Automatic annotation (TrEMBL):
It comes from the Bacteria. GO terms for biological process: ubiquinone biosynthetic process. The keyword Acetylation does not apply. It comes from Sulfuritortus calidifontis. This is 2-octaprenylphenol hydroxylase.
Length: 504
């Protein structure tokens, strides 16, 4: 099966002429000529960008997601390709409505019209793993019904198997393979894909994000209707809004675009550093804007999480970057063990300064985080820095945020927007507010534990440690008795000797 999938990938790539994207260098001109001879019958009437989009659609969800990510990076790829790949964000060809109705009929055990008061047969959006139909519940609420593509689990499973094989070969054959941890990165990607293929988990993610931003003036998250959610279907509140990619329409509605861009940065950093739970698939197809300028988040299949250690490490690094304290950045990496212990901190600091200093004091339109990250990766390679798989989704999301901010407001100063937020967050974590919040969070726990301390101490003393203490004490008493016995004998002999001398 995997060989068939590999053959299909090769066939699709050849059919749409994707080899021209990879064989343009003079070093591989012989391979390019061989491909032309082998596929002499090919005639391309469509532009290269269209052929790339069609190939990614034909290859399936993982490749579609790759195209979605590329579409936000207009600084890294030609504009014609970025414009065409943008169609992958919410205009992937839908699967037949009859299949969607069959899934719903099997899920609910009855006809769709018996479940919903209204159900639109034509999907309103179609993505790589599911499509969405508009409907209305019997109780009157307008809802979005998200239905998984039939057979999607098998396709994903085969593609992930090929990725794992490729990761293994990369790790075995490339000198930097072990440092880049491709197997762990693929495992992290697979975990998030599994989440995206589980509507129940996606619904839970949606509910959590809604709870985190329940009273937020910046972000709206739809309500989940749990009674209608199954392993193949998710039903949530219908949200109206303008796709964030339609800048002209947003301006026509008098939306403050620079303010919208700043709000997007704040939403991102709030999710990451306040909650440690962030939307990790924030391409424009998943974001709407309401008439009051409030963001609407959609598609919660891929969410990222960070623990307190990761959050604190990242916050310290971001603040150090914003303050141009490259020594602190280098020291933080060394302290965390992300670079080998033999690394000289001053040399690492100088390398980071050479990468980051040129990007400060510039608007976003003059900065490419993609290129900065590439230079940072080159620096990390030089110093033997290990890839942290748990941060891969965060890096991907940061690139998406940059692409989104670049579309909204090329003059956005990302540094100036994020710095006050991070400084306030660090103050709340490290200052007296952080201490008070920790005390409040821990107080209920200590309130239940403290009254139990005498019993717990008694149990501990009666446990294995107490047995060891008792054994040691008994040995000590036995030794003492043995010594006392000899002392008694010696004392008796001395007394007998004294009596004998006294008599004679």
């Amino acid at each position: 099966m995997r060989l068939l999938r590999l053959a299909k990938i090769w066939f699709v790539a050849a059919r749409y002429g994707l080899d021209e994207f990879f064989l343009g260098h003079e070093r591989v001109k012989l391979v390019r000529w061989a491909m032309r001879l082998l596929f002499f019958w090919r005639r391309f009437s469509q532009p290269r960008a269209v052929r790339l989009r069609l190939a990614l659609e034909a290859l399936g969800p993982i490749f579609v997601k790759f195209g979605q990510m590329l579409s936000t990076r207009r600084d890294l790829i030609p504009l014609d390709i970025a414009d065409e790949l943008a169609a992958l964000q919410d205009r992937v060809p839908p699967f037949p409505s009859e299949q969607a109705l069959a899934v719903l009929r099997r899920t609910y055990g009855r006809e769709v019209d018996d479940v919903f008061a209204e159900f639109e047969r034509t999907p309103v959006a179609s993505a790589s793993v599911a499509q969405v139909h508009r409907a209305r519940l019997k109780t009157g609420e307008a809802v979005a019904v998200k239905v998984l593509r039939p057979g999607i689990h098998g396709v994903i499973r085969n593609d992930l198997a090929l990725l794992r094989v490729a990761a293994g070969l990369l790790e075995a054959l490339w000198s930097d393979g072990k440092r880049l941890k491709p197997k762990e990165v693929v495992a992290e990607f697979a975990k998030h894909l599994d989440d995206e293929l589980d509507p129940i988990r996606e619904a839970a993610n949606c509910s959590q994000l809604r709870r985190n931003f329940e009273h937020s003036p910046l972000l709206a998250v739809p309500e989940v209707y749990w009674d209608y959610c199954t392993p193949e279907v998710m039903v949530m509140q219908w949200m109206d809004g303008v796709p964030i990619s339609q800048i002209d329409e947003l301006r026509r509605r008098n939306i403050d675009i620079p303010k919208l861009a700043r709000a997007g940065v704040e939403i991102f950093f709030t999710q990451v550093f306040r909650d440690g739970f962030f939307h990790a698939d924030m391409h424009p197809g998943n974001i709407l804007v309401q008439d009051d300028g409030k963001y609407v988040a959609l598609d919660f299949g891929i969410m990222g999480t960070l623990n307190d250690t990761d959050k604190n490490f990242l916050a310290q690094n971001f603040l150090a970057f914003f303050r141009r304290d490259y020594r602190r950045v280098a020291q933080a990496h060394w302290d965390a063990g992300w670079v080998p212990k033999e690394t000289r901190v001053d040399e690492f600091e100088a390398a980071i300064r050479a990468v980051c200093e040129p990007v400060f004091d510039r608007p976003l339109k003059e900065i490419s985080f993609g290129k900065v990250l590439m230079r940072l990766f080159q620096t990390s390679r030089r110093f033997g820095m290990e890839v942290q798989p748990q941060l891969v989704m965060l890096q991907k999301t940061l690139l998406n945020i940059e692409g989104l901010g670049r579309q909204l407001d090329p003059d956005l100063d990302l540094w100036a927007t994020a710095k006050p937020f991070l400084e306030r967050w660090m103050s709340e974590q490290i200052g007296w507010r952080g201490w008070l919040r920790t005390f409040k969070n821990e107080f209920p726990y200590w309130g239940t534990v403290v009254p139990q301390l005498p019993r717990l101490a008694h149990q501990a003393l009666r446990g294995e440690h107490m047995e060891r203490l008792e054994q040691g004490f008994m040995l000590m008493l036995a030794e003492q008795r043995r010594r006392n016995r000899w002392l008694t004998i010696i004392a008796a002999l001395l007394a007998a000797s004294l009596i004998w001398n006294a008599i004679h």
